Amino acid sequence: MTDLSSFPVSRRWPAQHPDRIQLYSFATPNGVKASIALEELGLPYEAHKVDITKNETWGDDFLALNPNGKIPAIIDPEGPGGKPLALFESGAILLYLSDKSGGGLMPADPALRYETLQWTFFQVGHVGPMFGQFGYFYKFAGKAIEDKRPLERYRDEAKRILKVIDGRLANRQWIMGADYTIADIAIFPWVRGLTVFYGAGDELGFGELKNVAGWVERAEARPASQTGLKIPA
């Protein structure tokens, strides 16, 4: 049996199936990227709920896995060379899982692969940070700030980014055209969260983004999404 005792996180969240990929996550737009990809690729895994509402990412056990204190993170007991691999950052996890599966959720053509990575990093560098800041000022503690310039800044940037995505999806089923990839998995949970979590559809003019709305519906309807969006429970 695989021994994960060298990872402090396994003491706080013991593995029932240590031979499987261990996922430490919470059902946020970043967290569900990993669970959706795992479901899509059919890789065996075990999910552990790390409750960010209780600051569980800031305990020493989790920080030993991710010193940045953010979900998701994974441990693959059968990493490169057959050795356990710990990994954090959702974009890195998506790329790793694709490679581990033999190239799933990624075009085989080298040029298209880099184009997929381009859009995945677009999410990492723009979609997540800007949407997250907008959500803070629109729904959470930031809404009490009397000066509305921060809200307006992030609202306008979120709207701009949505238009970029909507333009990309013109006459396309998925971000990369006919093929569903890690780029879709990286981006759609964040776009979905603008309406289902932040309740900001009207504020952002979501109804005008016909390409985006249809794409989110298609992504949500996939069986792997239906499962992955609820993991960890």
UniProtKB/TrEMBL annotation:
Signal peptide: none annotated. Residues 18-105 form the GST N-terminal domain. It comes from the Bacteria. Residues 109-233 form the GST C-terminal domain. Belongs to the GST superfamily. This is Glutathione S-transferase N-terminal domain-containing protein. It comes from Tianweitania sediminis.
